[in-house]
Write a structure and sequence with these properties.
alpha/beta, about 250 residues, TIM Barrel, globular, 8-stranded parallel beta sheet, 12 helices
Length: about 250
């Protein structure tokens, strides 16, 4: 009986004026959605997004969060800064952060703990490369990332967070895992959590699919037994497309 959650990761797109136009268009389209709806704009758009969505059913998430409460970390944003402006979610460990900016399993774990402590819901990303999938390493890689990300986090907090399975080979490429492939790997994630915390925690945890979900493939993916939502990239930059996804 997990409530689905659809989150839009805008990545490095949309100025504040463009963000205002998109959110203003999205608000009526997202009304009465049967899922939780979240938008994750760039940092410069966050305060505006929180203000625009106040009183609506749309949540706002950051695309990253730092593990330290404050200090000499040029270019970083702390959990308390995000919390004070009303941000409720934070994407952590996206494959682009891992690939381009040196994110590791250890820093993902530290960031997740900081978010939880501040009352911000982490959306923790895990996923394998094309070479790893072709080498039949998907289960080992994804399970290992989950174990590392959740190290030292109590069961109650795990049950309330979100994990996004995003096969690296399906991000921004237009490729997507088959419905069955996606469901199988999400099932691996849930089984890993059950192994660590027990079945009740695993059953409560919401797991998204994050590999190019869009209006054309959302119905098939969301019909799968293990998939509880999507972390949406390109389709979230169009209010009409995003609305089709959230009303799948």
């Amino acid at each position: 009986m997990r409530k689905p959650i659809i989150a839009g990761n805008w990545k490095m797109n949309l100025t504040p004026s463009e963000a205002k136009a998109l959110i203003t268009e999205l608000i009526p389209l997202a009304a009465n959605a049967a899922c939780d709806v979240v938008v994750c704009p760039p940092f410069v758009d966050l305060a505006l997004a929180v203000e625009l969505t106040r009183g609506t059913s749309i949540g706002v998430g950051a695309q990253n969060i730092h593990w330290a409460p404050k200090g000499a970390f040029t270019g970083e944003i702390s959990a308390s800064m995000l919390k004070e402006i009303g941000v409720g979610y934070a994407i952590i460990g996206h494959s682009e952060r891992r690939q381009y900016f040196g994110e590791t399993d250890a820093t993902v774990n530290s960031r997740a703990k900081a978010a939880i402590e501040a009352g911000i819901t982490p959306i923790i990303c895990v996923g394998e490369s094309l070479a790893q999938r072709e080498g039949n390493e998907t289960e080992a890689i994804v399970s290992g990332q989950v174990k590392a990300a959740l190290e030292g986090i109590p069961a109650q907090a795990v049950a309330a967070l979100v994990i996004a399975y995003e096969p690296i080979w399906a991000i921004g490429t237009g490729k997507t895992a088959t419905d069955e492939q996606a469901n199988e790997t999400v099932g691996t994630i849930r089984a890993t959590v059950a192994q660590l915390y027990g079945q009740a925690t695993a059953d409560a945890l919401r797991i998204q699919y994050g590999g190019s979900m869009n209006p054309k493939n959302v119905k098939g993916l969301m019909a799968q037994s293990e998939i509880d939502g999507g972390l949406i990239g390109g389709a979230s930059l169009s209010a009409a497309d995003f609305a089709q996804v959230i009303h799948y």
